[in-house]
Amino acid sequence: MTDLALDPYVVDVLLPDLVGHDRQPSAFLLYLALWRRTSGGEHPSGELPLAAMAEQTGLSKRAVQLALAHLLRRRLVTSVQSGPGRPHSLRVLRPWRRRS
């Protein structure tokens, strides 16, 4: 098992914002799982079925759907779906970082 490096912003700002203010702890859990899968947003997730996200986080598929919708609304992830019923390919965004 490898270490998981988190940007301090994720814990210091995003955690209280998603869990406390938005009351969406499932969105924070999903964001963390996606962060790990995408190396902190460096790579796209590849096709990732809802069932796989549910298993990885311990959430129900419906909770993952709601969490994903919340993360998309907050522009913390982007999603590409190659067709109806196809798994999502997700990219974790870090809007707090400036582009160089």
The gist of it:
The protein has 4 helices and 3 strands.
Structure description:
With about 100 residues, this protein is an alpha+beta fold. It has one domain (about 10-80). It has four helices and three strands; from the N terminus they run ααβααββ. The N and C termini lie far apart (about 30 Å). About 25% of the residues are buried.
| Stretches with pLDDT under 50, minimum 5 residues | none
Q: What profile does the largest beta sheet have?
A: 3 strands, antiparallel
Numbering strands along the chain, what is their spatial order in the largest sheet? 1-3-2
**How many domains would you count in the coordinates?**
1
Please count the helical segments: 4
Number of strands: 3
**What distance separates the N and C termini?**
32 Å
Radius of gyration: 13 Å
- Helix percent reads 40-55%
Q: Structural class of the helices, strands and pairings? A: alpha+beta
Shape by Cα distribution: globular
Strand content: 5-15%
| SSE succession | HHEHHEE
The overall pLDDT average reads 89
Short descriptors:
100 residues, 3-stranded antiparallel beta sheet, 4 helices, globular, 3 strands, alpha+beta
SSE topology sketch:
Blueprint: H1 8-21, H2 25-37, E1 47-48, H3 50-57, H4 61-73, E2 77-81, E3 88-92
Antiparallel strand pairs: 1-3, 2-3
Helix pairs in contact: 1-2, 2-4, 3-4
